[in-house]
Amino acid sequence: RSQDPQANGRPSTQAAGAARGASANVPDASLKVIAEELKLLLQPTTTPHAEKRTIQMEQSREGLRVSLMDDANRSMFRPGTAVLNAYAREMLLQVARKISRSGVQVAIEGHTDGAGGQGAANWKLSADRALAARDTLIEGGLTPDRLAEVVALAATQPVYPDQPLRAENRRITIVLLAEGSALPSDVSFRF
Q1: N or C, which terminus of the chain has less Cβ within 10 Å?
Q2: 114: Cβ–Cβ under 8 A, 6 or more apart, which residues?
Q3: Per residue in 51-72, pLDDT tens?
Q4: Which H/E stretch holds residue 67?
C-alpha cells in the first residue's frame, strides 16, 4: 500500500470522528462500560490490524456509535443485497448479546457506497441492510422495544468523501443512545 494519504483516501472526521483505533470516550458511565466491553468483544488482541479498521467506535452527542464496515477484502453483505455474510451476522449477534443486558436504547443506520449515487435503489439497499441488522440484533436477544429508530442513509455520509466507492463507506452503524442529562447544557446557568 502507498504511504501517500491521497492514495489511500482520508476519512471524514464527521463520519469517523475519534474512532480510529476504536477508542471511545463516552461521558455516560454505563456507556463507558459497554464501550470497553464491546472493544474487547469485537477486537480481540489476535485480530490483524487491517481487520481492526473495519470496526470503529466514537462518542457523539447521541451516545456511542459502533460502525461495522466493509473493507476491500471482506463485505458484510452479499454484493448488492441485504443478505448478511456469516462473520457480520456473528458480530451483530455478539453485539446484541452484550447490549441486551443494558437498558440502553438503540438506533441503527444503514450506509452504502456511492456506486448507486442518490438513486432510489441505493436508499432501499441501505434501508434493507439496516433492517437486516435490526432483525439480527433481535435474534441475538435485543427486545424490539429497545430500538428507537432504523435509518437509511444511502451514500450521504461516506467515511471517505474523496473516495465514494471505497468499501469502508458501506457500513452498519449501531448507536447506543445516551440518556439526556437532567442538568442544563449551559453550565453558567443560575437559578
Answers
A1: C
A2: 155, 158, 164, 165, 169
A3: 556 888 898 888 999 999 998 8
A4: strand 63-69
Residue 59's pLDDT is 87
**Of 94, 22, 92, 97, nearest in space to 59 by CA:** 22
CA-to-CA separations, 132 to 76, 136, 178, in angstroms, rounded: 11, 6, 24
- Residues with Cβ within 8 Å of 108's Cβ and at least 6 positions away in sequence, in order, are 130, 133, 134, 137, 147, 149, 150, 151, 172, 173, 174, 175
Q: CA–CA separation, 41 vs 59, rounded Å?
A: 18
Cell of 141: 436477544
Residues in the chain, overall count: 191
- Tell me the whole-structure pTM to 2 decimals: 0.76
